[in-house]
Amino acid sequence: RSAIGYLLSGTKPVTPAQIGQDVHALADSGVDVGVDAPELDPGSSLPRATRLKPREALPALTIAPPYEARFDRLWSISSYSALVRDVGRTLQAGSVGVPLRVLRDDEPSETDAGAAELRRPADVPWHRFPRGAFAGNFLHGLLEWLAGEGFALDDSASLQQALIGRCERQGWGHRADDVSEWLRRVCATPIPALGAPLAGLAGVLPEMEFWFPSDGLRARGVDELCRQQVLPGRPRPELPERALRGMLMGFADLVFEHGGRYWVLDYKSNVLGARDADYTQAAMEGAMLEHRYDVQAALYLLALHRLLRLRLGAAYAPTRHLGGAVYFFLRGVHSASAGCFHLPPPMGLIDGLEAMLTPSPGSAGVAA
Fold this sequence. Notes:
- By secondary structure, the chain is an alpha+beta fold.
- It is about 35% helix and about 20% strand.
- The chain has 12 helices and 9 strands.
- It has helices at about 5-10, 15-25, 80-85, 125-130, 135-150, 155-170, 175-190, 220-230, 280-290, 295-310, 320, 345-355; strands at about 75-80, 90-95, 95-100, 205-220, 245-260, 260-270, 320-330, 340-345, 365.
- Helix 8 packs antiparallel against helix 12 and helix 10 packs across helix 12.
- The relative contact order is 0.13.
């Protein structure tokens, strides 16, 4: 039952004597194997631990064989982030360029130009909460956890206490009351496109992972398709020219079913203004285009479309089953829009992306 036992005798049960015979046979076969009889403990048939013998000289190493393998150096695992990485600093509107931040994070830093107004937010939790990727990741993690709890934060004292504990363990204990009040409102506020809050959704799947095979998907082609199908005619940063060959993957914050239709939802902690009234439809549309969330929504909807086609089979009808994408700008939860931007499923966009991607053999793509 040892490694050497399996090596010498396979999985068949053998006796120690048979093992000994195998070892001696191996030593006599001409390979460089030495055999020493073990020392036995006095009054016992068990051997003592074998002492390591010092070596005067190590055996010579064999010459390494030449490496002749070949592989595709252009093959990679990419994502939405890879498509929008290093996107241009200006929106091209005719010959006029509109200055933009480099799109690396959803949130501006505290030192960004033009942030002076944002330093004086309304005195409510969702506006005074810190900005930045660290804060955004913290909020995303809490909402992923709450999805597993049915978003029942407003009705459960024990869940509220557990939330405070999570804040304290992650270094946000000084903001625990604000986080609790904010997320209770997020979970209980009806989403306009649904007429129901997160807490009213029956079937939810947080962090749905998906993978697409991609044989040279070109970013410019995706860019052109999104410009035609999502808020057409509106300026937005150009995607840099790049071809994605290999696998395209991602994680959708939340996939859910409501009223017989399936939706994808993404949480955003972006600051669009210092007051609730700043979270208008126009402001959210501007953020969608500035950060190229139209590209992200297209990939997420394609993943959901492929999953539904695979699971529902011939019964799947996109116009009946696909609800679209909701972008939940969390800091606008108390605004007239509830901070929710709804993108109906643009089937021209989905079909166009489908044509650009090479499907895996015998499958409509891989999704959780």
